[in-house]
Design a protein that fits this description.
Length: 201
Protein backbone atom coordinates (compact mmCIF):
# COMPACT_ATOMS: atom_id res chain seq x y z
CA UNK A 1 0.00 0.00 0.00
CA UNK A 2 2.91 2.36 0.60
CA UNK A 3 4.34 1.68 -2.86
CA UNK A 4 4.29 4.64 -5.23
CA UNK A 5 1.45 4.48 -7.76
CA UNK A 6 2.48 7.61 -9.71
CA UNK A 7 4.25 10.93 -9.29
CA UNK A 8 2.40 14.24 -8.87
CA UNK A 9 4.26 17.58 -8.80
CA UNK A 10 7.49 15.69 -8.18
CA UNK A 11 6.19 13.75 -5.17
CA UNK A 12 5.31 10.07 -5.10
CA UNK A 13 1.64 9.23 -4.56
CA UNK A 14 1.15 5.88 -2.82
CA UNK A 15 -1.59 3.36 -3.50
CA UNK A 16 -2.72 4.01 0.08
CA UNK A 17 -3.41 7.65 -0.77
CA UNK A 18 -5.11 6.76 -4.07
CA UNK A 19 -7.56 4.34 -2.46
CA UNK A 20 -8.24 6.65 0.51
CA UNK A 21 -8.84 9.50 -1.96
CA UNK A 22 -11.45 7.54 -3.93
CA UNK A 23 -13.33 6.38 -0.82
CA UNK A 24 -13.32 9.82 0.79
CA UNK A 25 -14.55 11.53 -2.36
CA UNK A 26 -17.39 9.03 -2.68
CA UNK A 27 -18.27 9.57 0.96
CA UNK A 28 -18.65 13.35 0.66
CA UNK A 29 -20.68 13.10 -2.56
CA UNK A 30 -23.11 10.81 -0.72
CA UNK A 31 -23.16 13.21 2.27
CA UNK A 32 -24.18 16.09 0.01
CA UNK A 33 -26.98 13.92 -1.39
CA UNK A 34 -27.97 12.87 2.17
CA UNK A 35 -27.46 9.16 1.44
CA UNK A 36 -26.60 7.15 4.56
CA UNK A 37 -24.15 4.86 2.72
CA UNK A 38 -21.68 7.72 3.03
CA UNK A 39 -20.91 6.58 6.57
CA UNK A 40 -19.37 3.14 5.84
CA UNK A 41 -17.26 4.78 3.12
CA UNK A 42 -16.17 7.32 5.73
CA UNK A 43 -15.06 4.53 8.07
CA UNK A 44 -12.95 2.83 5.39
CA UNK A 45 -11.45 6.10 4.14
CA UNK A 46 -10.66 7.23 7.69
CA UNK A 47 -8.79 4.03 8.51
CA UNK A 48 -6.64 4.43 5.41
CA UNK A 49 -6.06 8.15 5.88
CA UNK A 50 -5.15 7.56 9.53
CA UNK A 51 -2.35 5.29 8.34
CA UNK A 52 -1.22 7.81 5.69
CA UNK A 53 -1.17 10.73 8.12
CA UNK A 54 0.74 8.71 10.71
CA UNK A 55 3.44 8.04 8.13
CA UNK A 56 3.43 11.78 7.30
CA UNK A 57 3.71 12.83 10.99
CA UNK A 58 0.40 14.69 10.90
CA UNK A 59 -0.69 13.41 14.29
CA UNK A 60 -3.58 15.82 14.68
CA UNK A 61 -5.01 14.30 11.52
CA UNK A 62 -4.43 10.80 12.87
CA UNK A 63 -6.58 11.81 15.84
CA UNK A 64 -9.21 13.21 13.46
CA UNK A 65 -9.33 9.99 11.45
CA UNK A 66 -9.62 7.90 14.62
CA UNK A 67 -12.47 10.13 15.74
CA UNK A 68 -14.06 9.82 12.27
CA UNK A 69 -14.15 6.02 12.50
CA UNK A 70 -16.07 6.11 15.80
CA UNK A 71 -18.24 9.12 14.96
CA UNK A 72 -19.13 7.63 11.57
CA UNK A 73 -20.70 4.66 13.33
CA UNK A 74 -22.70 7.11 15.44
CA UNK A 75 -23.49 9.29 12.38
CA UNK A 76 -24.74 6.29 10.43
CA UNK A 77 -27.03 5.39 13.33
CA UNK A 78 -28.26 9.00 13.55
CA UNK A 79 -29.08 9.17 9.85
CA UNK A 80 -30.97 5.89 10.03
CA UNK A 81 -32.70 6.15 13.42
CA UNK A 82 -32.04 9.61 14.90
CA UNK A 83 -34.89 11.85 16.00
CA UNK A 84 -35.32 15.54 16.76
CA UNK A 85 -38.21 17.66 17.97
CA UNK A 86 -40.09 19.29 15.10
CA UNK A 87 -41.62 22.80 15.15
CA UNK A 88 -44.63 21.47 17.06
CA UNK A 89 -42.48 19.88 19.77
CA UNK A 90 -43.16 16.30 18.66
CA UNK A 91 -40.39 13.74 18.06
CA UNK A 92 -39.75 13.24 14.34
CA UNK A 93 -37.10 11.50 12.22
CA UNK A 94 -33.86 13.47 11.99
CA UNK A 95 -34.10 16.03 9.19
CA UNK A 96 -31.83 18.81 8.01
CA UNK A 97 -32.04 21.81 10.37
CA UNK A 98 -30.27 25.06 11.20
CA UNK A 99 -28.09 25.42 14.26
CA UNK A 100 -29.12 29.02 14.96
CA UNK A 101 -27.07 32.11 15.74
CA UNK A 102 -26.43 31.59 19.46
CA UNK A 103 -25.34 27.97 19.12
CA UNK A 104 -23.23 28.85 16.08
CA UNK A 105 -21.40 31.50 18.13
CA UNK A 106 -20.70 28.91 20.84
CA UNK A 107 -19.32 26.53 18.20
CA UNK A 108 -17.04 29.27 16.84
CA UNK A 109 -15.74 30.18 20.30
CA UNK A 110 -15.13 26.52 21.11
CA UNK A 111 -13.10 26.13 17.90
CA UNK A 112 -10.98 29.21 18.65
CA UNK A 113 -10.37 28.09 22.25
CA UNK A 114 -9.51 24.47 21.46
CA UNK A 115 -7.19 25.26 18.52
CA UNK A 116 -4.22 26.68 20.52
CA UNK A 117 -4.75 24.09 23.27
CA UNK A 118 -4.40 21.23 20.79
CA UNK A 119 -1.52 23.01 19.06
CA UNK A 120 0.33 23.19 22.37
CA UNK A 121 -0.26 19.48 23.02
CA UNK A 122 1.00 18.54 19.54
CA UNK A 123 4.05 20.79 19.95
CA UNK A 124 4.91 19.39 23.36
CA UNK A 125 4.18 15.68 22.97
CA UNK A 126 4.79 14.82 19.29
CA UNK A 127 7.51 15.34 16.69
CA UNK A 128 5.22 17.17 14.26
CA UNK A 129 6.73 20.21 12.57
CA UNK A 130 3.35 21.95 12.08
CA UNK A 131 1.55 21.73 15.45
CA UNK A 132 -0.69 24.81 15.26
CA UNK A 133 -1.19 24.57 11.51
CA UNK A 134 -2.35 20.98 12.02
CA UNK A 135 -4.44 21.79 15.11
CA UNK A 136 -6.78 24.32 13.46
CA UNK A 137 -8.37 22.00 10.87
CA UNK A 138 -8.24 19.13 13.37
CA UNK A 139 -10.58 20.92 15.79
CA UNK A 140 -12.74 22.10 12.89
CA UNK A 141 -13.04 18.53 11.64
CA UNK A 142 -14.29 17.32 15.02
CA UNK A 143 -16.93 20.06 15.00
CA UNK A 144 -17.88 19.52 11.36
CA UNK A 145 -18.33 15.80 11.85
CA UNK A 146 -20.69 16.23 14.81
CA UNK A 147 -22.76 18.83 12.93
CA UNK A 148 -22.88 16.53 9.89
CA UNK A 149 -24.09 13.56 11.94
CA UNK A 150 -26.86 15.76 13.42
CA UNK A 151 -27.76 17.13 9.94
CA UNK A 152 -27.15 20.80 10.69
CA UNK A 153 -26.71 23.01 7.60
CA UNK A 154 -23.81 24.78 9.33
CA UNK A 155 -21.66 21.69 8.90
CA UNK A 156 -20.91 22.87 5.35
CA UNK A 157 -19.36 26.29 6.10
CA UNK A 158 -17.31 24.61 8.83
CA UNK A 159 -16.08 22.07 6.26
CA UNK A 160 -15.37 24.86 3.78
CA UNK A 161 -12.97 26.51 6.26
CA UNK A 162 -11.39 23.15 7.20
CA UNK A 163 -10.92 22.26 3.54
CA UNK A 164 -9.28 25.59 2.64
CA UNK A 165 -6.72 25.30 5.45
CA UNK A 166 -6.17 21.59 4.74
CA UNK A 167 -5.25 22.26 1.10
CA UNK A 168 -2.35 24.41 2.29
CA UNK A 169 -1.41 21.94 5.05
CA UNK A 170 -1.27 18.89 2.78
CA UNK A 171 0.51 20.85 0.07
CA UNK A 172 3.19 21.71 2.63
CA UNK A 173 3.65 17.96 3.17
CA UNK A 174 3.68 17.18 -0.59
CA UNK A 175 0.50 15.15 -0.21
CA UNK A 176 -0.69 16.59 -3.50
CA UNK A 177 -3.45 14.10 -4.23
CA UNK A 178 -4.91 14.70 -0.79
CA UNK A 179 -4.57 18.47 -1.29
CA UNK A 180 -6.52 18.05 -4.55
CA UNK A 181 -9.12 16.01 -2.68
CA UNK A 182 -9.64 18.90 -0.26
CA UNK A 183 -10.08 21.31 -3.17
CA UNK A 184 -12.85 18.99 -4.40
CA UNK A 185 -14.21 18.77 -0.85
CA UNK A 186 -14.38 22.58 -0.84
CA UNK A 187 -16.51 22.56 -4.00
CA UNK A 188 -18.71 19.83 -2.52
CA UNK A 189 -19.07 21.82 0.71
CA UNK A 190 -20.44 24.73 -1.32
CA UNK A 191 -22.82 22.34 -3.12
CA UNK A 192 -23.88 20.77 0.18
CA UNK A 193 -24.42 24.16 1.79
CA UNK A 194 -26.68 25.24 -1.08
CA UNK A 195 -28.57 21.94 -1.32
CA UNK A 196 -29.13 21.52 2.42
CA UNK A 197 -30.09 25.19 2.68
CA UNK A 198 -32.87 24.58 0.16
CA UNK A 199 -34.03 21.42 1.93
CA UNK A 200 -34.06 22.77 5.49
CA UNK A 201 -37.47 23.20 7.09
Amino acid sequence: MLEVAFTLFGAGVTWLEVIAFALALGCVVLNVLEIHWAWPLAIAASLLYGWLFFVSRLYGDVAVQSFFVLSSLWGWYQWLFGRREDAGGAEAPLRIARLGGARLAVVGLLWLAAWPALGLLLARFTDTDVPYFNAFPTIGSFIGQILLALKFVETWPVWLIVNAVSVALYGSKSLWLTALLYVLFGALAVAGWRRWGRLVR
